[in-house]
Amino acid sequence: MKKVAIFGGIAVVALIAALVAVLIWVDTDFLRKLSYVSLSMMSVFACGLLIAVTALVAILAALIQVLNNLTREKVSPLIDKVNEAADTARGTAVYVGEGIVSPMVRLASLLAAVRGAVSALFTKRS
Predict the structure, then answer these.
(1) Contact by Cβ (8 Å): 31, 23
(2) CA atoms within 13 A on the CB side of 99
(3) Residue 54 binned pLDDT confidence (cut-offs 50, 70, 90)
(4) 31: which residues sit within 8 A by CB, 6+ positions away?
(5) What is the rounded CA–CA span in Å between residue 121 and residue 32?
(6) Residue 124 φ then ψ, to 5°
(7) Is residue 19 left, alpha or beta, with left meaning phi > 0 and alpha meaning psi from -120 to 50?
(8) Where would you find the membrane-spanning parts of this chain (predicted)?
(9) Rounded CA gap, 71 and 20, in Å?
(10) How far apart are CA 46 and CA 123, in angstroms?
(11) 3-state secondary structure labels for all residues of the chain
(12) Is the alpha carbon torsion for 83, 88, 89, 91 positive or negative?
């Protein structure tokens, strides 16, 4: 890791030294032309970046629209069916509770009362 840092530092120093040498010994007219070329290239790259970002935003908007349509067409009916099934199960549980379990509890309590009465009548007391 140290070697990489040392070589990186040497490369940066060499690059700065080369840049200073170019600025000292190269004609100013050449540097002006070079700045125009670099500005032109930066403008072209900036325009390309703007086009790429615009395309990515358009793709993202289309993807959001597709996901909205998918949710509206596929997921919403599925959720409605699940809610309907839950309501049916709730209704069935209420029906079973009121129509079957409640009478059986009353019958069991009545039989327990009869058994208790019979037991009380026919059990010997000392």
Answers:
(1) yes
(2) 6
(3) very high
(4) 23
(5) 123
(6) -75, 140
(7) alpha
(8) 6-26, 38-64
(9) 61
(10) 104
(11) CHHHHHHHHHHHHHHHHHHHHHHHHCCHHHHHHHHHHHHHHHHHHHHHHHHHHHHHHHHHHHHHHHHHHHHHHHHHHHHHHHHHHHHHHHHHHHHHHHHHHHHHHHHHHHHHHHHHHHHHHHCCCC
(12) positive
pLDDT at residue 43 is higher than 90: yes
pTM: 0.46
Averaged pLDDT for residues 28-51: 92
Give domain limits for the chain. 2-122
Q: How many CB atoms lie within 10 A of CB 82?
A: 10
Q: Which two tokens stand for residue 73?
A: 């067409």
Positive or negative torsion for Cα 4, 6, 7, 13: positive
**pLDDT for the residue 49:** 97
